[in-house]
Each structure stands twice: as structure tokens, then as C-alpha cells.
Amino acid sequence: MSDATLPQFRTDTARKRDMRRIRGEGVIVKTVLIAVSLAFLALFLLLPLASVFVEAGARGWTAYKAAVTEPDAVAAIHLTLLVAGIAVPFNVVVGIAAAWAIAKFEFRGKNLLISLIDLPFSVSPVISGLVFVLLFGAQGYFGAWLKANDVQIVFALPGLVLATVFVTFPFVARELIPHMQSLGSADEEAALTLGASGWRTFLTITLPNVKWSLFYGVLLCNARAMGEFGAVAVVSGKIRGLTNTMPLHVEILYNEYMSAAAFAVASLLAGLALVTLALKTLLEWRYSDSIAASRRH
């Protein structure tokens, strides 16, 4: 090896040594980050979740079945599903309309509309419920009129639905808006140019393009609707067997030192969440290519 090539050889050797060191440090950093993340998830997520199911089954299947089939528990389950069944479709329709308007059109007050959509994220759920009490309660702004017409909103199903709609509204719209904005309006404009109506354009082009974002928004909205506590606690009055949803029923059972029954009902809520997560994961795995193509588009 000539003297002229020695500096270059040393440079290449030093570069390779630096790359090995960087890769080694990268492996160490990656390992530490993964370990910290797994430890955090195990301690604050998996362990509490597992403890719910362990406590729920601690007294055997007979006690578990009695807890979840008890009349007040059955009423709470039915009410939870009913409220979610009303609130989620409503938020889907309104969320799609809001996302379509924001992503596809320019109009005065657009930023204000976006801020209003995000409002439930920044307001405490308890405050959200209190707002409806101040509006529709017996001493509220519309209380006298509602009483005169024998209409009850607070401490009844309508109040639960209103509170749930309010706290869950952003999920669908917020999933759809960035996706619709990234897609642009070229496809819709081409369809309109070819003579398609606005409704047909929406059904055949806009909606299929955002179906996966819509699906994720619906999952998040439904999970929050069934698990919401703060807002519905204020507007429900916690009338056992009448206006108690599953989260409220769990609280009442636990406060009455009926921990086994409380954990049994809580396990149903946790099970619904796990089913939602499993469904989302399954569809992502089954249709991963379609989802990736939709996002690239």
C-alpha cells in the first residue's frame, strides 16, 4: 500500500468504525425505548385490565352471572347500548357532513367551525353535562316550558343522548377531515364534469375513498359513548335501574362495597373495548393493502 492511499484507508476505517458505533448505540437506544414502553404498558394498562377480569371471576361463574343478569345491571346494559345506538349514528351523519364541508369547500367562518368541532376535547365532560342541566333542568332556561308541555330531558334518556353526542362528536369528524383534505377535490370535480349528481358523487367517490377513516372514527366514537362517565353522571341523576348506564352502575356498586358485582359489570365494559380493538386489528390485517392504498391516494 502506497503512502498516498494511507490517509484514505484511515478515513474509510474510521468511517466504518463510527458507523458500527452508531449502529451499536442505535440498537441500545431502541432496546431501552422498547423496554420502557413495554414496562409502562404492562404497569398502567395490561395489569389493571387483567385485574378487572381476575376480580370479576374471583367468586366463580355463578356469582358473575348473578351480577350481570341482576335487573339493574341488565337495565344499565340496555341503556348503554341504546344511548350509543342513537348517539353514534347521529355523530356519523353530522361528522361526515361537517368534514365534507370543511375539506371540500371554502366559506366564511371555516376556522370557527373547526374550533367548535374541537370544543368537546377542551371542555370537561362534567361541565358539558352541567350545561344541559342549566338549559333543560327544572330551574334551567327552558325548564318551565318543558314542564308545561310534560317533556323531560334531564334525568331521562334524551339528556343522556345529548350529553353523549356532545362529548363524542369530534371523533368522526376529526378522523375524516385530514383524510378528505389530503385527497383533494379532483375526483369529485371530474365526476361532476361528467354529469354525476352531487349525491351520487358522494356515494360512489367521496365515501369509498374515506371508508377506513370513517370506520376508525366510528370505533372511537362508539367506545367513548359506551364508556362515558362524567357528562352522563350529571344529566342522569343516577336513578338506579332507570338512568344508570354501565359506568354509573359500576360506580354505585363499588360505593356500596359490592366489589364483585362492580368488577363483573366492569369486565363487560372492558370486554366491549377489547372486542372493538380486536375488530379494528383484524380488519387492518385483512385489508391492509386497501388501507395503505387509500392513505397513499
TrEMBL record:
Alphabetical list of NCBIfam families matching this protein: 3a0106s02, permease_CysW
PANTHER family attached to this UniProt entry: SULFATE TRANSPORT SYSTEM PERMEASE PROTEIN (PTHR30406), SULFATE TRANSPORT SYSTEM PERMEASE PROTEIN CYSW (PTHR30406:SF1)
Localization per Swiss-Prot or TrEMBL: Cell membrane
Matching Gene3D superfamilies: MetI-like
Assembly, per entry: The complex is composed of two ATP-binding proteins (CysA), two transmembrane proteins (CysT and CysW) and a solute-binding protein (CysP).
Source organism superkingdom: Bacteria
The UniProt record lists the keyword Transport: yes
Alphabetized SUPFAM superfamilies for the sequence: MetI-like
Protein task: Part of the ABC transporter complex CysAWTP (TC 3.A.1.6.1) involved in sulfate/thiosulfate import. Probably responsible for the translocation of the substrate across the membrane.
Key words of the record: Membrane, Sulfate transport, Transmembrane, Transmembrane helix, Transport
Residue span(s) of domain ABC transmembrane type-1: 77-278
Stretches that traverse the bilayer: 27-53, 73-100, 112-141, 153-173, 214-237, 257-279
Protein name as catalogued: Sulfate ABC transporter permease subunit CysW
Entries under CDD domains matching the protein: TM_PBP2
Topology of the protein relative to the lipid bilayer: Multi-pass membrane protein
One Gene Ontology cellular component annotation held by this UniProt entry: plasma membrane
Family matches, as InterPro entries: CysW_permease (IPR011866), MetI-like (IPR000515), MetI-like_sf (IPR035906), Sulph_transpt2 (IPR005667)
Molecular function GO labels: ABC-type sulfate transporter activity
Main location: membrane
